[in-house]
Design a protein that fits this description.
The complex is a heterodimer. Chain A is mostly helical. In chain A, helix 4 packs antiparallel against helix 5 and helix 5 packs antiparallel against helix 6. Chain A is globular and about 60 Å long. By secondary structure, chain B is mainly alpha-helical. Chain B has 15 helices and no strands. Chain B is globular and about 85 Å long. Chain B starts with a helix and ends in a 15-residue tail after the last helix. Classes of the chains: A mainly alpha, B mainly alpha. Chains A and B meet through helix 6, helix 13 and helix 17 of A and helix 6, helix 13 and helix 15 of B.
């Protein structure tokens, strides 16, 4: 993920002041190892916090496994938003599309097993995407309005369909019978001791973890958590990230799709069928959201429960913005949000969540340093204030209530918008109702 | 455009939407194996009893208020999606605050209303401040603030505001003393000689507040300097700026007003029926309010019709049930009618604009020099 590096214009550039730091920062961001290094350092901080405050859940392997499972529906919603918004169509109907996905997936799953559940979930979400395409691309309805309409319509449709199906097949109007069969879990061979053609491979990470070496064992544990008994569907979801990056940034198809979002007038004048690409984008968007809904059904509850999406479509939108409309950014955002949710579920005494607050405060202080170095005083001031608030909160409370963990995602998104709003770069014509043949 | 044609355009869209919705619903009912005409007759018969009318009005009151809250923002192109979070947080805090005092009725009622409006305004104001200081899009910030409001509300309720040690299993806030209740507005109907059901079905006193609010909204918008500035900012921000309107101030004031009105949404049932906040506190009214505002195209009369329509649909689902049809058909009708209405409005607006352009071109043709100018053809504006 690159960050747009144009600092606010503040008169002539003084040699030796802003530029070198900005230069280093920019060069570092371009390095492939840099994100890995950041992650490793961040993890070191977590390990120290976990030891200091007896907050074992912060670095427990199970937390990281939960991070993947809970983060991937958010990831899929975010990717759904990415396809749509890259083509210039804002999609706040992701929530509704996910709801359609959960219903369809449960219905397919209870009859023909998890793979059918996946296929039906994607198709169900795509139906929502099609509605959005008909309204916004076909009729030129305002994107937000259409999204709100889909969010109102979707629970109505699923409630009606449930009364016609689940209520008569052993479930009820708000819950479906369980999905038939189990979805496959996979474990990485050699490193985490997965099976390879029936042969039990060694568990190298597990061995390192048991040595109890400071930091190294913790890293091994986290990696083992992320590679042991992971649902195949989650692996598929994460594989969609590199696939999306390739499709949208390395193919002619992707270039045309993005051109519809960057400047539909120019794209049209070059012969790109803007409407067609926007329609495809809406369908892909709905399909991704439906996949996310299917994951909720197949991997977290095992059946359809009314209201189980619970705002995850909106959190996916948050991940999209947090990730600066880029696939890797969406991955990072949903990983962080999934981590917070996983932590809250495993944390019984509230200590680990308290540790997370301190961790975020430390991140904010690092942010302050970077912002000061980049001479963005105002943003630095706001960030420092937030860091101060978090530290006060940390000191003042013994335990952080679980309910507040779930606001991590929206709060962080607002913070990013406030502090780094200028560096974010949404597609230029995102949300613009473009009509062929009409002028700007 | 002549006023009769303008009226035609205004009415055409909702009528088209209603017809399409009825067509789609009829298909759904046919698939369910019932007769759509029977279903509709049942819905209407069920709802036109006095008890039904009272219930529909009671459901329409908060929806109308929600519509006004959304419409205030819409007037200057501010999309306040956060109405949902604003009213739920405001309802919770107002319910708690109302139970802490026992003042004479006038002060008590005013106090609860004021608390709700202030909480709603402050929560919406965050989005306004973020927009003018950091240029954060209000759609995104209000979506995020919704999620935050749900989390914060749940936390406040569980950890601080709910009644401790109650015998009830269901968690709730302390009951508001009767001085903080809103008297019923049944008398408004009894003037016309109607024998109102009363009791749990009594008309919310907030009906009067809602009517006053609708009137105030329209008068402010159409008859005051502020309303003019608001509409001007929405129609053409640059023109408004050059004529001396401070756009930043307008954004903040609009968000505060929208949020203050949103704060009222939960009060009709809170002060007229339940008198405490619990998990059954109505949800989703903020989003339905967006639907009502769009259906009524931000006009108070239109929004009142939209709110009554939604109230009717909600209540009449009972009639469907009696006819052996899944009452959930109504949920589909609500969503469909909104989607159809926004599509129909967009299409009709485009047709109207095209017709206007055509008419202007035709008039130019007439006025072209070198040609004897004729009297304007019948039907064209003077």
């Amino acid at each position: 993920m690159s960050v747009s590096s144009v600092p606010p214009a503040t008169g002539p550039v003084i040699p030796g002041s802003v530029e070198p730091i900005d230069d280093i920062y920019r060069r570092l961001m371009r390095e492939r190892w840099f994100p890995v290094a950041v992650l490793l350092v961040a993890f070191l901080v977590l390990v120290i916090l976990a030891e200091q405050f007896d907050a074992i859940a912060l670095t427990a392997p199970g937390t990281f496994r939960q991070m993947l499972i809970l983060g991937s529906p958010i990831l899929l919603a975010g990717l759904g938003g990415l396809y749509c918004e890259r083509a210039g169509i804002v999609n706040i109907g992701l929530e509704g599309m996910m709801i359609l996905g959960t219903w369809a997936s449960a219905w397919g799953g209870m009859h023909w097993g998890p793979w059918a559940g996946l296929a039906f979930g994607i198709a169900g979400g795509a139906v929502g995407g099609l509605l959005h395409a008909i309204a916004t691309v076909g009729f030129g309805v305002d994107h937000i309005v259409s999204g709100v309409a889909i969010n109102i319509l979707a629970p109505g449709i699923t409630r009606y369909l449930s009364s016609k199906t689940f209520a008569e097949e052993g479930g009820s109007i708000s819950t479906s019978p369980s999905v038939k069969g189990e979805a496959t879990d996979v474990t990485l061979p050699f490193l985490s001791g997965g099976d390879l053609f029936g042969w039990k491979t060694p568990d190298i990470l597990g061995w390192i973890e048991r040595q109890d070496w400071f930091y190294i064992s913790d890293v091994a544990g986290a990696l083992r958590g992320m590679t042991t008994d992971i649902p195949l569907l989650v692996v598929l979801a994460i594989a969609l990230v590199p696939f999306t990056a390739w499709l949208l940034w390395r193919t002619a198809f992707g270039l045309r799709l993005r051109s519809a979002g960057e400047n539909p007038f120019a794209a049209d004048s070059l012969g790109v069928p803007v409407y067609r690409f926007q329609t495809i984008a809406c369908l892909a968007s709905g399909g991704c959201a439906g996949f996310g809904g299917a994951l909720l059904v197949l991997e977290t509850t095992g059946n359809y429960k009314e209201g189980q999406v619970a705002g995850r479509g909106f959190i996916g939108l948050a991940a999209l913005i947090f990730g600066n409309w880029r696939p890797t950014g969406v991955l990072a955002g949903s990983g962080l949000f999934g981590y917070a949710e996983g932590l809250a579920r495993r944390d019984l005494d509230g200590q680990s969540v308290r540790g997370l607050v301190l961790f975020l405060a430390i991140c904010a202080l690092v942010g302050v340093a970077i912002l000061i170095a980049r001479r963005n005083v105002r943003a630095a001031g706001i960030t420092a204030m937030l860091a101060g608030l978090m530290i006060v909160w940390f000191v003042a409370t013994d335990e952080i209530p679980e309910e507040l963990v779930f606001i991590t995602a929206p709060v962080l998104t607002l913070v990013v918008l406030v502090v780094a709003g200028r560096s974010l770069r949404p597609p230029r014509y995102d949300g613009f109702v473009w009509r062929k043949g009409e002028s700007d | 455009m002549s006023s009769s044609r303008r009226l035609l355009y205004a009415v055409a869209a909702p009528v088209i939407a209603l017809v399409v919705t009825l067509a789609i619903t009829s298909i759904v009912i046919l698939i369910s194996g019932a007769n759509p005409l029977d279903a509709y007759r049942n819905m209407i018969e069920y709802s036109t009893r006095l008890r039904g009318v009272a219930s529909i009005v009671n459901q329409a009151v908060p929806l109308f208020i929600a519509g006004v809250a959304v419409a205030i923002g819409f007037q200057m192109n501010l999309f306040n999606i956060g109405v949902e979070g604003q009213y739920r947080l405001a309802g919770l805090i107002a319910a708690w605050a109302g139970a802490q005092v026992a003042w004479p009725a006038v002060f008590h009622v005013t106090f609860i209303i004021a608390v709700a409006m202030i909480v709603g305004a402050l929560w919406a104001g965050i989005a306004g401040v973020l927009k003018v200081t950091r240029n954060v899009n209000e759609v995104i910030s209000t979506i995020m603030l919704n999620q935050i409001a749900f989390g914060v509300g749940l936390w406040l309720f569980n950890d601080y505001l709910k009644l401790e040690g109650g015998t009830n299993l269901a968690a709730q806030t302390e009951e508001i003393p009767s001085t903080g209740w809103m008297p019923s507005a049944d008398w408004l109907f009894e003037i016309f000689g109607l024998d109102m059901p009363g009791g749990r079905s009594a008309i919310y006193g907030f009906l009067i507040v809602a009517i006053a609010l609708g009137a105030l909204y329209w008068v402010t918008l159409m008859r005051t300097r502020f309303g003019y500035d608001l509409r001007a900012s929405g129609l053409n921000p640059n023109a408004a700026l050059t004529s001396g309107v401070n756009p930043k101030r307008m954004v903040i004031v609009t968000m505060l007003l929208s949020g203050a009105v949103a704060g009222l949404i939960g009060l009709p049932s809170l002060m007229g029926n339940t008198h405490f906040y619990d998990e059954a506190f109505p949800a989703g009214l903020g989003f339905d309010g967006i639907a009502v505002a769009l259906l009524g195209q931000y006009h108070p009369v239109g929004m009142a019709v939209g709110a009554l329509l939604f109230g009717f649909l909600d209540y009449s689902s009972g009639g469907l049930q009696l006819a052996g049809i899944e009452p959930e058909v109504v949920a589909i009708m609500k969503g469909t009618i909104m989607l159809c209405a926004v599509i129909a409005y967009t299409v009709v607006r485009r047709l109207a604009a095209a017709a206007e352009v055509q008419e202007a071109a035709r008039r130019l043709e007439h006025d072209r020099p070198g040609r004897p100018s004729r009297a304007a053809p019948a039907g064209a504006p003077a």
